[in-house]
Amino acid sequence: MSEATALHETEHEGMAATAEVAHGAASADSELVAAPGSRRMRWAQWWAVTRGEVARQILRRRAIGALGLALLPVLMFSAWALFSASFGDPSVGDSRLMYAVIYQGFILNLVIFFGSVVIFSTLVRREMRDRTLHYHFLSPVRREVLLLGKYAGGVITAWILFGLSTLVSYALCFTPFLSQAPVELQGFFFDGPGFAHAGSYLLVTALAALGYGAVFVFLAMFFKNPVIPALAVFGWEAANFLLPPALKKISVIHYLVSLLPVPVPEGPFAMLSEIPPPWIAVPALLALSAVLVGLAAWKFRRQEILYGED
Amino acid sequence: MSGAVAGMAAADTAPKAPPAVSRTTSGGPGAGGRLVFSDVSKFYGEVLGVNKVDLDVAPGITGLVGPNGSGKTTLMNLLSGLLRPDRGRVSVLGVTVDQPEELFRLIGYATQYDAFPRRMSGFQFVRDSLRQHGFTPAAAETLARQAIARVGLEEAAGRKVAGYSKGMRQRIKLARAIAHRPAVLILDEPLNGLDPMARADMIDLFRRQAADGLHVLISSHILHEVDDLSDRVVFIDGGYVVAEGRVEGVREEVEEEPIQVLVRCDRPALLASRLFTSDHVSGVTLHDDRQGLLVATRDADSFYLDLNRLVLEDGLVVEQVAPADADVGAVYRYLIGGEMGKTGGRG
After folding, report:
1. What phi and psi, each to the nearest 5 degrees, are found at residue A274?
2. Does the structure show a pLDDT above 70 at B5?
3. Which residue of B has its CA nearest to A35?
């Protein structure tokens, strides 16, 4: 037998063996939740990534930053609940306004904003730093699905942390009236807007996580150090009330503020503009988030593993 | 792989000239069952990763050999889509890196990165990967246990990876790479950090995988292990594929260096004196144990004819005739020179 013939036969055997391997892979495929590449499979993979990301964000040491921020309003209103008597004789109405001011000025502008920086800026960057991103890239998952899964994991984490923070701090805000003015409190919640306001604050918190999450996922994909652009965004958002109406629309806070149940005076220097109704504000925020996450996914699809450069 | 040698004319110069090879390109005949690099170049800014690589790798074990920074890891990362070529095309069994849902069912890659998700046990590390592949929870658990058993880590599977030794970390990476039963196994320095027993086990595992029809592409600094393991070898230096094929075939093509043949016989001194008269022998060295000769020849076929004739004429008793430098280490020295692992830079 000539060498060429021997080589040919060896290769033929190799191909046959490859076919057997493919058959083995096919039998492994029968243990998949759905056909590879199908919509159901992508959902399953998205959920696997999302679930893993939530576990990483909440159950690990990395949660300390965001958790600490989420606890600040709770601590602040716990102090209020304990020492409200020393602040004179506040009414439920006063507390409602106080919560609105603190929610907008502190919880929304600082806690949720910087909490989102902590959670979303690190979704991909931290894995690059830890040199573990390649494990995701070596899975048969489209990069877009991967990024959407990580983003969703971040959103769920933010909802859990900041949603609970919002809800608990709102409850603590009115706790002193359980003993001081129970009738007034009952009226506010059962005959008034108390529960609706709580729902509105939760909705704003949820939308803020979606919107700021999208902004910081986007920035993290395009900037190696997203802290400086995040600070620039913070300045833009904080100064939003000073901006002309056209520029106000290019922000997240503009749409969020319009959804707050209790308007807060913006001061004498504020530029007046038309407040978008909820049916514009909510879709606008969702659209902005979709565009930013879409751009981040486009970039992520071209991402290479170059740990040495990061 | 066709068994051709690339860039031999410039084998003694570094960096090597681009190999002038023309083999099966992706999309051509047989591309569906092979790993194909077609005119692939990759640069890191102005630094060359690999340049004008044409390779067509058949099933079996293929060793990737070259000094640090030669482009071995770059080739592996290009094959697995962790890097994208600046030029050319890469395909794995006919699937390109733009088809991740198909590609990563075919590929299992144990990278050189010694990093793991934090606070994860070995079992979780493998199982979570399978869940991300889309396996059912029950199948993921079963496949994870099977893979962990194949690398011999059952007892440590429940422990955190952070507490593993280097060898255990290598093995758990390998378990993750093989758990989904890939058709192509890419292993970047998989024997690093393993003790001799574990090395032997892993080599046996690679052989079994290859015997099952898998493509096993393996890079290693340990040349004699590459020699033992590989059906074919790709020599790479300075980002260029210098030679590729079966080691013996590559060795024969290195015409600048005479072939060394070890001959053991009862009267080596006599044979040496007789061989000096042969036109086909360029040198004879008596072996240190004085029981044999190292013969240098540029024409092996003619030398073997001469040897037959002399053995018959002088009634010599020959115990062994074997090539003395048709191994990866010798070919590496001839083609690339120096020892492996002395230069820095990108792998």
Report:
1. -70, 130
2. no
3. B134
